[in-house]
Write a structure and sequence with these properties.
single chain, 420 residues, alpha/beta, Rossmann fold, 3 domains, 6-stranded mixed sheet, 3-stranded antiparallel sheet, 12 helices
């Protein structure tokens, strides 16, 4: 006999909460680039966001937005300050559990601050030895969702709803039919034109059953040739990206996530590599993008271009390109002995000349350099014009608000005219 057990509903499922909408509201918190910490001169590659900071961000999102049903919000506010704090605290804890359960965040073990006698003289511990700092990491699922949302918003602003791969004027035997059939040749994709193949076989051997199909009878559809592209996204993370009262690095991170989602879902044959350049340069996995912050201070454009060129030269693609997002002039240079020469005052002739030489090497390697500028300094414009003339690429002078639209339009509208 089947029994049904009823229990008191406690609201643990949080059915009223749109979790994706909440993650969207928290995107600025998840992708913060150090802009909030610039007054404290904090430049860390891993900011180590704590669960307490996430609790505060969720609480602000609940109170400032429309995530909570109006009647529930009124009840919370009517209970008074002590009751409100306790109720919101419990609600936020349940939301954190759901975020972790559905794979948007990954809680990390608490970090115990060591006592002063176990810490180096230059980095004294704070508080007692038992103080713990629970942390979390954003997961690939959350990064993928943020990339999808950014891409969707950008395409909506562009008036685009769907798009294909990189089309060319060439015809090949692919999957989508785009031209008349032709006889099969060794190495072609076996995308048979069944009707034409049977017709040729019948004309050759007569109308007998079974139909004798021979090798010369095979006809294949022709499709538009679709090329593959290897892209190195070169992000400037020097300190100027968060100075002057504007955060330029977080919009660049959003565009990187959107571009990664675009390539994975619509251009599966393409590849994307993320390179950060500052005093030096390094390749960063896309899974680490959310935790990247600005710093150190200077702009070693030449080292970023050199690393990107080496990465792309290993890629066997029809096209290879560097997409560079920057807001500052080159101000650092890695010398042959490994030392870093720095000069932040004006355009240093030695830094500029070595940087332009690297641009020329990219051109000789068949790598296109497209530059997206987030500043309009006259000397910087002149430098970008030199880069564009050498590599025959494009230069876009844009803002953090229009960066994504310019970059995605350039990527989707780019045909393979470079290889004809």
């Amino acid at each position: 006999m089947k029994f049904t057990r009823y229990s008191r509903y406690t609201g643990e499922s949080l059915d009223w909460l749109d979790l994706e909408q909440l993650v969207s509201r928290l995107s600025d918190f998840f992708l913060q680039s150090g802009f909030e910490n610039q007054a404290y001169r904090v430049q860390e590659m891993d900011p180590g966001q704590t669960m307490d900071q996430l609790r505060d961000a969720i609480r602000r999102a609940l109170l400032e937005g429309d995530l909570i049903p109006p009647e529930m919000l009124e009840r919370l506010l009517e209970e008074g300050e002590p009751g409100e704090e306790q109720t919101l605290h419990d609600l936020v804890d349940r939301i954190l559990e759901r975020l972790a359960r559905e794979g948007y965040i990954s809680p990390q073990p608490p970090e115990i601050t060591p006592p002063p006698d176990r810490t180096s003289a230059a980095h004294l511990g704070h508080g007692d030895a038992g103080e713990a700092h629970a942390r979390f990491e954003i997961t690939d699922k959350a990064l993928d969702f943020l990339g999808f949302k950014t891409l969707r918003d950008l395409l909506a602003s562009l008036g685009k709803s769907s798009f294909g791969r990189h089309d060319t004027r060439d015809l090949a035997t692919g999957i989508e039919s785009g031209g008349i059939s032709r006889p099969y040749e060794f190495g072609d994709t076996l995308n048979l034109d069944i009707g034409e193949t049977l017709s040729r076989a019948i004309r050759r051997s007569g109308g007998g059953i079974p139909i004798d199909i021979d090798y010369p009878d095979l006809m294949v559809h022709q499709a538009e040739y679709q090329s593959s592209c290897a892209t190195a996204l070169l992000l400037d993370c020097s300190h100027s990206m968060i100075l002057y009262g504007e955060d330029r690095f977080t919009p660049a991170k959003r565009v990187a996530l959107a571009l990664a989602h675009l390539l994975r879902t619509h251009y599966p044959g393409d590849s994307l590599h993320l390179v950060l350049f500052h005093d030096s340069a390094e390749e960063v996995p896309l899974s680490e993008l959310a935790r990247v912050q600005v710093g150190p201070f200077y702009t070693n454009t030449r080292e970023g271009l050199r690393l990107a060129r080496r990465i792309l030269q290993r890629q066997r693609k029809d096209m290879r390109q560097i997409v560079m997002i920057t807001d500052g002039k080159p101000s650092a240079l890695t010398l042959d002995d490994g030392r870093i020469y720095k000069n932040a005052f004006g355009l240093d002739p030695m830094v500029v000349s070595h940087t332009l030489e690297e641009v020329a090497r990219c051109k000789r390697a068949g790598i296109l350099v497209n530059t997206f500028m987030l500043a309009r300094d006259y000397s910087l414009i002149h430098f970008v014009q030199q880069v564009t003339e050498i590599c025959r690429g494009k230069a876009y002078f844009t803002t953090p608000y229009t960066l994504g639209q310019y970059l995605l339009m350039d990527y989707m509208n780019r045909k393979t005219r470079q290889i004809h």
